[in-house]
Write a structure and sequence with these properties.
- By secondary structure, this protein is mainly alpha-helical.
- Helix content is about 75%, strand content about 0%.
- The chain is built from 22 helices and no strands.
- Helix 8 runs antiparallel to helix 12 and helix 9 runs parallel beside helix 21.
- The two termini are about 40 Å apart.
Length: about 425
């Protein structure tokens, strides 16, 4: 089937958006050299803005070429549940009571490991929290891990090598760490219902392999940087006002509610509004909610949804023509340039696929989920939280790619050999 003109335009704009994500530093430099329009250059230099901006261009082109009705029909046909959910879960999970509770859990586990505080806390954050994503969903785990790492490590004077290596391991571990259940990882969620994959199947087919890879990756990073990590002490970043247990429990109820109703935006957005009201009622126990960061990440993912809808014409035939081994490595590579949830969704539309095909597609999609910021839906959340601690407030895409390759290789070994 030949692509329509708007599908070709959509593919071209998607390609431009990909190039744009690797060029954000160019716009930041323009902001310094062209101060008269510094605002717009700073705006275009935000990675979270890229796909939303080019999605807007696509909609404008659709209005010109196909008219208002066609454009609105296309937008109404897309699902924006995931961007809305990531926004809601980031705001709730990023609140001070939830973060304190998570820090307490990590510290309790770390104290049972016979290492220095800096090493043990780091290892548990990169292993326990990503695996927790199988219960509280990957976006929530990414938000918690990002905030814990920011408070305990990235806010200190640590080396750039450690920052990038940690980010690479975090992104890969979050991507594979949510595969122990059928509802936590976006690429699994896209196919679980249609293919009849329940949490028992996920745990026995994917989860134990992913858990082993997560532990190996976290251990390798800890041992590689053990000298630097051992120098980092817990200086006690406790808030001035102790959060009462009841407030923590109420926050946990909101978090669980948002997770349980993750597929029902009317419910979880309503819970979010009640949650914001509760935080204002007990403002003395709160830090500022990460509303801006959550909105930016939601904007990024919504733009990816709009642009991704016009990639089916070339992606789906490409997947259909691959054998199982090629499909696994092809999905790992394609995930870096698309989105692993979109990739598995397109694969699920193919009829009569074998069990081997399905395994290769999903395993490859989650394996490559840490290679770029767009590879996995939770990545923009971690990116948004941690980018301010990097030089010039920017994370270099090639630096992330290089840091994610070793843990990705471990994931490949786990899914291909075990």
């Amino acid at each position: 089937m030949n692509p329509t003109s708007i599908e070709i335009v959509g593919a071209i704009l998607f390609g431009i958006a990909l190039v744009h994500t690797f060029s954000t530093r160019f716009f930041e430099r323009l902001a310094h050299t062209r101060p008269a329009h510094a605002g717009i250059w700073h705006y275009l230099g935000e990675v979270e803005v890229v796909f939303g901006f080019w999605a807007m261009i696509l909609v404008i082109v659709m209005l010109i070429i196909e008219g208002k009705d066609a454009a609105t029909t296309y937008l109404n046909g897309q699902s924006f549940t995931e961007p809305m959910f990531v926004f809601a879960i980031m705001v709730v999970a990023g609140s001070r009571p939830i973060l304190q509770f998570a820090m307490l859990c990590v510290r309790t586990i770390a104290q049972r490991i016979p290492w220095s505080d800096g090493k043990a806390f780091y290892f548990v954050t990169l292993s326990f929290v990503p695996l927790l994503g199988s219960l509280i969903t990957e976006p929530a785990a990414m938000t918690l891990a990002g905030l814990i790492l920011l408070q305990r490590y990235y806010s200190r004077e640590i080396s750039t090598r450690l920052k990038y290596a940690t980010l690479g391991v975090l992104f890969v571990n979050i991507s594979i760490g949510g595969t122990m259940t059928s509802f936590a990882a976006p690429p699994v969620l896209m196919v679980a219902g249609k293919w009849g994959w329940d949490s028992t199947f996920m745990l026995t087919t994917f989860g134990w392999k992913a858990a082993l890879a997560v532990l190996v990756n976290a251990l390798a990073a800890t041992l590689l940087f053990q000298r630097e990590l051992s120098k980092i002490k817990n200086e006690g970043n406790a808030p001035h006002v102790e959060v009462p247990l009841l407030v923590v429990l109420v926050h946990l109820v909101f978090l669980i509610g948002v997770v349980v109703f993750a597929h029902h935006p009317v419910v979880f957005m309503g819970l979010l509004l009640f949650f914001i009201g509760f935080t204002h009622a007990y403002e003395r126990y709160q830090d500022p909610l990460i509303l801006r960061e959550g909105l930016m990440v939601g904007f990024f993912l919504a733009g990816l949804v709009v642009l991704g809808g016009y990639q089916k014409w070339w992606l789906q035939p490409l997947l259909a023509d691959m054998d199982n081994t090629t499909l696994y490595f092809g999905a790992t590579l394609l995930t870096a340039f698309t989105d692993n949830a979109a990739l598995t969704y397109l694969g699920s539309l193919l009829e009569g696929t074998s069990a081997e095909f399905r395994y290769a597609l999903v395993a490859g999609a989650v394996t490559g989920g840490g290679l770029t910021v767009i590879a996995n839906a939770p990545n923009p959340a971690g990116f948004s939280i941690l980018k301010g601690s990097f030089k010039d407030g920017a994370i270099h895409p090639l630096g992330l790619l290089a840091a994610a390759l070793p843990p990705t290789f471990v994931a490949i070994l786990a899914f291909q050999l075990l």
